[in-house]
Amino acid sequence: MGILWGLSLGQAEPARAQALPPSLPRLTQDEPVPMRSDFQVPQTLLGDWGGLRSWLDQYGVSFTLNQTSDYIGNTQGGIKQGFVYDGLLDLEVDIDLNKAIGWKGGKIHFTGYGIQGQDLSTQYVGNLLTVTNVESEPAIGKVGEAWIEQRLMDDRLSLRAGLLEADRYYMISPTANVFVNSTFGFPDAWEANMPGSGPGYPNASPGGLARFSINDDWQITASVMNGSPVGPNTNSMSYGMSFPVGDGALSWLEVVYSPEFTWGDRTLPGYYKFGGWYNSASVNNVTMSSDTGRNFNNPVNTTYKGQYAVYGLYDQTLFREANSTTQGLNAFTRVTYNPQTERNLITWYFDAGLAYVGLFDGRPNDIIGLGFGWAQFTPYLTNQVSAQNSGSSSPTPLPKPESLVELTYQAAINPWLTMQPFLQIIANPGGSAPMPNNPSQAIPNATIVGLRANVAF
Fold first, then answer.
1. Which residue in 58, 78, 71, 63 sits closest to 29, CA to CA?
2. Which stretch of DSSP H or E encloses residue 55?
3. What pLDDT digit, counting tens, does each position of 238-279 carry?
4. Residue 89 and residue 150: Cα distance in Å, rounded?
5. Which is nearest to 178 in space by CA: 338, 370, 19?
6. Is the dihedral of CA 25, 31, 36, 39 positive or negative?
7. What 3-state DSSP class applies to 423?
8. What is the DSSP string of 120-175?
9. How many Å apart are CA 456 and CA 44, to the nearest integer?
10. CA–CA separation, 43 vs 416, rounded Å?
11. Burial class (CB in 10 A: 0-12, 13-18, 19+), 354
12. Tens digits of per-residue pLDDT, 143-197?
């Protein structure tokens, strides 16, 4: 469920990346967002907090505190219609160990989550591609990331160890950050496939990560984490205070190529990412997964050792307005493939989108975006449903790909507040999963509307 891109691990912030607008949720100051414009000096609602920020800075301590609030509703189709609130209070604390105790290149980071409200996707829609990227159940306080870092070789190499969330490091598109649906960050296809939904918000996993910047254009990231962020007990990470180990190893590798192209006197940055992961943890047959939305009379009670995925990402600025380094049109495309059909609920996943920064006169920081996502359910599941239907007097719908379209507009009211109305159309929720009260009928297509507010305190 990720919504951020490229922690600048292992290198100084690239010149093409603008400083972070503090109203974006779950982002820390060293995570550049290239498509945002001209927030060079972050401002917050409470400013210096009566001198607290300045006092802490003497000891190398800095923090951000952001509140994301969504009022969202399913207006048509889905399981039922209605509106709910969801939200997230996100605390990010950094300690510069060089300033604090003279430890050159050292840093400590801590994340705390205050999860709020209800889950529209599970209660009202029945979809796999989660409506918002802060939805999570239950609504509680949790520890997120907590790690120590050492930078070496003039900051070209960075090493981190502790609790890590993979959605902060991998498969992240800077252009896709503007969208509200969870799948445009850490793909929801991976959450459906991975044990414990994978190491992403709000469940971090113990592990280590290294990032090496070969030069300004090439970067390599690799990590090893516990195979499941929740371990064998699904409640063990309820507050993020249990640290599961011994559940296999999730190994990851990603290569990033980030060139800058020129068009006349304008610079067009691009981001191209290629990677893959392998998880040695035990994985159940898909008929045993609750994410199918289906009940099998005779599920295949088989456990497999290991699963893997490969992926690629294209994110490119297509057009820049004159006399601007940020305003213009950006595009992205991402694709993932999990080939093991009997243990991966989603085999193919694809998304793409466009976002324009500063389309309207007098609104240089606003972003309008149009995104599309598509998840192909494994053909193995189709065969299992067909086999069960052949001997049943009340057959259930066959799986179909779930897809969504999102149209959104993020308005920068000021440096510490953004307001963001959005519309989502979800086709074949849950892959045409059966209605809970009528298993012979597929959940109908859903129309979602919502308004998001982001406040930086």
1. 63
2. helix 52-57
3. 676 777 788 899 999 999 999 999 888 889 999 999 999 999
4. 28
5. 370
6. positive
7. strand
8. HIIIII--SS-S-SS--SS--EEEEEEEEEEEETTTTEEEEEEEE-GGGTSS--TG
9. 5
10. 6
11. middle
12. 999 999 999 999 999 999 999 999 999 999 999 999 999 999 999 999 999 998 8
Cis upstream peptide for 339 (omega within 30°): no
Identify the residue whose tokens are 């053909």. Answer: 379
Q: 197 near 215, Cβ under 8 Å?
A: no
Burial label for 316, CB within 10 Å (0-12, 13-18, 19+), is middle
Tell me whether residue 365 is exposed, middle or buried, using C-beta atoms within 10 angstroms of its C-beta: 0 to 12, 13 to 18, 19 or more. Answer: buried
**Residue located via tokens 């207006």:** 75
Judge contact between 257 and 217, C-beta under 8 A.
Answer: yes
Rounded to the nearest angstrom, the gap between the alpha carbon of residue 33 and the centroid of all alpha carbons in its chain is 14
Of residues 191, 373, 424, 388, the one with CA closest to residue 291: 191
Written as six digits, the tokens of 310 are: 């490969």
Residues in the chain: 457
Strands 82-96 and 61-76 turn out to be antiparallel
Distance of CA 333 to the CA centre of its chain: 15
- First CA to last CA distance, the chain: 23
pLDDT category of residue 43 using cuts at 50, 70 and 90? confident
Residue-wise DSSP of 333-398: EEEEE---TTT-SEEEEEEEEEEEES-STT-TT-EEEEEEEEEEEPHHHHHHHHHHHHT-SSPPPP
Contact 53, 43 (CB under 8 A): no
Q: For 51, left (φ over 0), alpha (ψ -120 to 50), or beta?
A: left
Q: Do the Cβ atoms of 113 and 153 come closer than 8 Å?
A: no
- The Cα 139–Cα 70 span in angstroms is 14
Number of Cβ atoms within 10 Å of the Cβ of 238: 14
- Its sign, for the CA torsion 320, 324, 328, 331, is positive
Write down all domains in the chain, each with its CATH number in brackets.
52-456 (2.40.160.180)
8 A C-beta contact, residue 348 and residue 376: yes
Gap between the Cα atoms of 200 and 111, Å rounded: 13
Burial class (CB in 10 A: 0-12, 13-18, 19+), 154: exposed
Question: pLDDT value at position 297?
Answer: 86
Residue at token pair 């995104």 = 371
